TrEMBL record:
GO terms for molecular function: metal ion binding. Residues 61-80 are annotated as: Disordered. It comes from the Bacteria. This is TIGR03086 family protein. InterPro entries: CHP03086, DinB/YfiT-like, Maleyloyr_isom, MDMPI_metal-binding. Transmembrane segments: none annotated. Residues 12-134 form the Mycothiol-dependent maleylpyruvate isomerase metal-binding domain. SUPFAM superfamilies: DinB/YfiT-like putative metalloenzymes.
Amino acid sequence: MTDTTPTLDLGPQTAALARLAEGVTDGQLADPTPCPEYAVRNLLGHLVGLTVAFRDAGRKDLGATTDTSPGSALPDIGPGWREELPTVLAELAEAWRDPAAWTGMTRAGGVDLPGEIAGLVATDELVIHGWDLARATGRPYAPDPAALQTCHDFLAASVDDPSRGEIFGPVVPVGPDAPLLDRAVALSGRDPGWKPRS
C-alpha cells in the first residue's frame, strides 16, 4: 500500500448501485445503454460478473471467477439476478474493507495486478457502470463522492497510457467547469450527454 492510495470503503457506492438495479423493470431489460454492445440485461449481467470477480480478487480467492476475461462472452442475467446482485455487491464491499485486499498481488479478468490497482479498477467499474445503468433507465444517479473522486483521479491518470484504448474509448471533451461525474464519464470515453433514443 502506498501513502497516496488509501483504502476506500466501497459500501456507499455498492449500496447506490444496488438501489439503481432494484428500480430496473422487466420492460427495460432490452433497452439500449451507453455501452453500444450491451442492452440493460447485458449491463446487469456484466455487473454481476465483475462484482463476483472483484469480490474474489479482494479476498485473494483466485480461480475461475477471476481468470475469465470480461470480453469472452456477451454477459446476461440469470433468473435470480435481482437477489444475486445486491448480495454480491455487499460481499464485494466487505472484501475490500480488509486492508489486505489493497496489498500484494491479485487477479481480475485474467490479468494479474497489484491489489491497490484492482481496488481502483473496481471503483471505476462501479461508478461508471452505475452511470450507464442510470442513463439507460432514466434514473437519477448520485454516486458516493469518495468513490467518484477516486474514479475520476484513476481515469485522469490513465489518459496518456498507450494501453488505455484496450479498455476505454477516446476521451470526450468537456469543459473544465463540468460536474465531476461528467468529467469522469468523459474520461472513460462516454458522452456525458448520452440519452436513449426516443
